[in-house]
User: Fold ABC transporter ATP-binding protein from Raoultibacter massiliensis.
Amino acid sequence: MKLSVSGITIDLGTKPAKRVLDDVSFEAYDREFLSLLGASGAGKSTLLKIIAGILVQDGGSIAFDGRAVDGVAAHKRNVGYVFQDMRLFPNMTVEENVAFPCKMRGMRKDARFERARELLAHVQLDGFGKREVSSLSGGQQQRVALARALAATPQVLLLDEPFSGLDEHLRDEMRSLVLKLHREFGMTTIMVTHDAIEAIEMSDRIVYLSGGRVEQFGLPDELFERSATSEIAACFGDCSTIKGVVEDGVFSAGPLSLSAKGVAPGSATAVIRQSAAAVDAGMPPLFPVRCCVYRGSTYLVRIDLEGQSLSVPSPSPVADGALVGVAFDGSGVFVYAEEGGDDAGR
Ligand SMILES: Nc1ncnc2c1ncn2[C@@H]1O[C@H](COP(=O)(O)OP(=O)(O)OP(=O)(O)O)[C@@H](O)[C@H]1O
Assistant:
């Protein structure tokens, strides 16, 4: 199912109302796995609810396979939805929860329980059907929520931060399970996440939302290697964000100078990934060390850049207050003009 989101705009709240989504457009192709990535408050969940029909937009349109569904009620859109807080029915057994969407569609009792058992097997919960939901662990409840979302054979699956309550080990398991089900069931899947690594690991493409607008829409490697804004470059973690000035294609902040070819002169922001910098005895010792911490396989040196902090890995410990040299690898250094942010250079 091709999903088209065209010019979606919505204001929420009163006194004053706030523009939560502003002219959001993108398309997910049939069977694509697409992530909506962005910081808290960017508008991701709001957009997911509009796609599901739980919330009605003020402007723009949602279309499935080219047909607008704006007037179609949520339960008639053939969309599966996994909520962040799962929203399982506590008064029903596991299989009653999973069978519920089929009941809503008028499926016979024996057929819908048969379907529920099949789905529970798919999410590795064979034999759990008669249990109370409250007797299950968080990870098991998340799988019940997933099975329930799949019950009515949706063509579009919407996942709102589906792994947020799980520990890292369970999260990995659930990611694999979701990708397996996405492929097996042949759905178009849209997942909300604020975890950039999760998004690049799982998605065919990523929509990055900021302040209710699409800042970048592309392949995972495009967002990682050619981030359109400093916010996107920084969202992958393990980086330093440094304010400075660009003049004649060079970014400076105290002793730090970086190539900023193509970036407009004036105030600018540099994002330097830790993987692109290293303490190097062969470089001029320009940078004062604020502190050095042990990180297992490496040390992490925090450099004081006139009040700003630059974090750089080091193969060996360095004394606080010492001056060190640093080598930079341009592939992980991004410079953006202060306004707009689309003047990225390296
Ligand atoms: N019913 C509402 N009334 C007023 N403001 C709202 C309403 N729902 C959401 N908002 C505001 O809209 C903005 C976007 O909210 P939304 O939940 O879509 O963000 P999000 O990107 O999913 O964030 P998170 O990752 O924290 O869930 C937030 O500033 C939120 O406070």
Remarks:
- The pocket of adenosine-5'-triphosphate is lined by residues 12-13, 18, 20, 38, 40-46, 194 (CB under 6 Å).
- The helical segments are 44-52, 94-104, 109-122, 138-150, 168-185, 196-202, 220-225, 230-235.
- The two ends are 39 Å apart (CA to CA).
- The mean pLDDT is 93.
